[in-house]
Recover the amino acids of this structure.
């Protein structure tokens, strides 16, 4: 299989399913050692990650997966995926800026990055494009608007055959989730923050 048929992804495990993010959407990851409570109107932005004497907005992607996909956490969520602000669209930056006005204290430096809290067991893996099942044409546009690009199945448990017992994997677009879902999940709408 040639390199162009393989993509590197971050696989985020949950108890009964997995989420995969293109590795290019995050520059690096760090262990979450120190956080600071912050208050914004965004349900998924209530803390900052202290990194190199700076406070970085830390979006709780783990909580997002629990709320939207009813995904049960698999272990601890002490890993932060780091995203460079320079790689984000103008639309995302505008929405982000509105929340950061409440997130940051007056005169506080705003670093060129944001972070996402995910399961500590997240790993980088290679995925063959042939493993991905695209959505049927009647659903494709709707699912892509929700940030779900494709699905696949993890291999079954030891002793199983093929996909038997395998967990569903969702290939997601972090930018779409951030713009359409995460940044728009306001506290007043917490009960209605589902994939629609």
């Amino acid at each position: 299989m040639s390199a162009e048929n393989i993509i590197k992804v971050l696989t985020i495990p949950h108890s009964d399913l997995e989420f995969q993010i293109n590795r290019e959407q995050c520059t690096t990851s760090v262990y979450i050692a120190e956080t600071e409570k912050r208050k914004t109107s965004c349900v998924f932005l209530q803390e900052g990650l202290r990194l190199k004497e700076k406070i970085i907005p830390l979006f709780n992607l783990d909580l997002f997966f629990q709320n939207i996909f009813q995904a049960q956490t698999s272990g601890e969520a002490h890993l932060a995926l780091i995203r460079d602000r320079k790689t984000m669209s103008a639309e995302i930056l505008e929405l982000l800026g509105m929340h950061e006005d409440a997130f940051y204290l007056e005169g506080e430096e705003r670093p060129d990055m944001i972070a996402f809290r995910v399961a500590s067991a997240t790993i980088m893996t290679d995925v063959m494009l042939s493993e991905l099942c695209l959505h049927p044409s009647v659903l494709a546009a709707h699912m892509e608007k929700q940030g779900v690009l494709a699905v696949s199945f993890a291999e079954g448990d030891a002793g199983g055959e093929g996909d038997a017992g395998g967990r569903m994997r969702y290939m997601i677009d972090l930018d779409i989730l951030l713009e359409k879902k995460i940044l728009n999940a306001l506290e007043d709408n917490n009960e209605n923050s589902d994939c629609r």
Observations:
- Residues 157-164, 189-196 have pLDDT under 50 and may be disordered.
- The helical segments are 61-69, 90-103, 137-145, 174-182.
- The chain has one domain: 3-183.
